[in-house]
Amino acid sequence: MPTLTFLGHAACEVANGDATILIDPFLTGNPAAVTKPEDHSPTAILISHGHNDHVGDAVDIARRANATIVANFEIAMYLQQKGATVHPLHIGGGRAFPWGHVKLTPAWHGSTYEEGDQMHALGMPCGLLLRAGDRLLYHAGDTGLFGDMALIGREKIHLALIPIGDNFTMGPGDALEAVKLLKPETVVPIHYNTFDLIRQDPAAFARRVAAETSSRCVVLQPGEGLEY
Questions:
Q1: Which homologous superfamily does the CATH classification assign to the domain defined by 3-221?
Q2: What percentage of residues in the chain have a pLDDT greater than 90?
């Protein structure tokens, strides 16, 4: 079975057999991170949207590890210019790779990358569906609640990573409604407590998930993981 390790904020690592896949690898400058970029040599890197706290260390890690970055077309082309190997996708599109199948879903957010005094608009934000073996993971990215999450949940989602931080994304109440629409086997809250502005009580969220849904909620500290 695949193993997910939570790296802090929205950054995660999936290990499945000989393959490892990093998602939104914001490590440098992440006060919640317990690993450094050089600790990771992934097979591939998935990026949900262009904000700096999600693109993170993707280029440096990809160049060092010879990993492929999979993201929307605009992000992929931008990071290719930085020397990364990329594979572009876009919303609704999927692709099978030797290490798993990736499909991009809608997300309601922004996708602008800050570089010095320049702002680069990098297409639409996305959620990520990663199928490793017969197990399906949904990383919602940064998003508000939207009704089409019910469509994303048509296939059995074994693990959903859902933001709960509020202010920039869903808060706990809307995240609970997202769980009800998605109906995942297990949910892990992400994108909270990295900064004071998104401080939340994940244990309280987990209690509501247990009381009001059929999903299991597991609160992970950075560096902790689970099989799914």
A1: Ribonuclease Z/Hydroxyacylglutathione hydrolase-like (3.60.15.10)
A2: 100
The whole model's pTM is what? 0.98
- Rounded to the nearest 10°, the torsion over CA 34, 39, 44, 49 is 40
Contact indicator for 172, 208 with CB cutoff of 8 Å: yes
| 38-77 confidence digits (pLDDT tens) | 999 999 999 999 999 999 999 999 999 999 999 999 999 9
Q: Which residues contact 148 (CB under 8 A, 6 or more apart)?
A: 106
pLDDT for residue 77:
98
For the segment 89-117, the average pLDDT, to the nearest whole number, is 98
**Which DSSP string corresponds to the chain?**
--EEEEEETTEEEEEETTEEEEES---TT-TT--S-GGG---SEEE---S-HHHHTTHHHHHHHHTPEEEEEHHHHHHHHTTT-EEEEE-TT-EEEETTEEEEEEE--S--EEEETTEEEE-S--EEEEEEETTEEEEE--S----TTHHHHTTS--SEEEEE---SSS--HHHHHHHHHHH--SEEEEES-SSSGGG---HHHHHHHHHHHSSSEE----TT-EEE-
pLDDT of residue 42: 98
